[in-house]
Amino acid sequence: MKHRIFVAARFWFALALPALAAEAGLELPLLFTDGAVLQRDHALPVWGQAAPGARVQVEFDGARAQAVAGADGRWSLQLPAHAAGGPYTLVVRAGNEEKRIGDVLVGEVWLASGQSNMEWPVATTLHGKEDIAAAGDTALRHYKVPKSWAATPQAQLAGGRWLPATPQNVGEFSAAGYAFARELRKVLGVPVGIIDSTWGGSSIEAWMDASMLGLDAAALEAKMAERRAVDERVEAATRARLGRLDARRSGVRCVRFGAAGRQRLGRGRGPRDLGNAGFRRHERRGLVPHEFRAERARGRRRHGAGAGPDR
Question: For a 10 Å CB count at each end of the chain, is N or C smaller?
């Protein structure tokens, strides 16, 4: 393991790069919560948010380090490398605020990422029931990163928490990650933490920033802003057209859109008034809600499959 690439440590530190919202208050990434596992035998990065200019002090098993929050409130520091062991308490102070992270272990931390093969949970595997029933290793822990996305890198995860390998939790663990972690526990005999950041069917480009793809970040952002503006105009025009549909002739219920984007059902002239060809064009573009299609199908059954002008 001396030559292993500690990807998880880099993944953790990468979250420190984007700015957290500049709020007056001590905040840590959600990875630093009760039950966390930190990487052994390497300097331990700790980071977060505090009031601009605040002096931040961190203590961990007798080791201490400090930093000063920048004008944007961000701060980061490193604690000395630590051997495997625990549990310990991570204490972070800034001014009158203090956060205590308990039950922290030090061992092997690995990032499990990819598509559905890595996302596949223990509960759905061939021997899932047996693996769940046999689980009982609290030094093996799993952190599931919730599915979320953003146009720019985010400093805080959308949620998640560290869970020990117990029958109550293991069913939702990544099956591949759990098998790998159990093997590490057998061979190394140290605590193991798996950070499960998976999304079935996702493309590798979605996980990479512009510079990694060899693209001009500023030009890409300008192009994305232009596309978003076009999409917003098309959406607004479509909502306006659908909102003007007057349901009086066929008695078929149709969907109208309010200003808040919520769908309201009204009676009167329905989707058949778009004309069959027009309706199909909207349907192919994803502009016709599910309820609209269902009402159209019922209307066709009432009036006959060929009812309505095909315009």
Answer: C
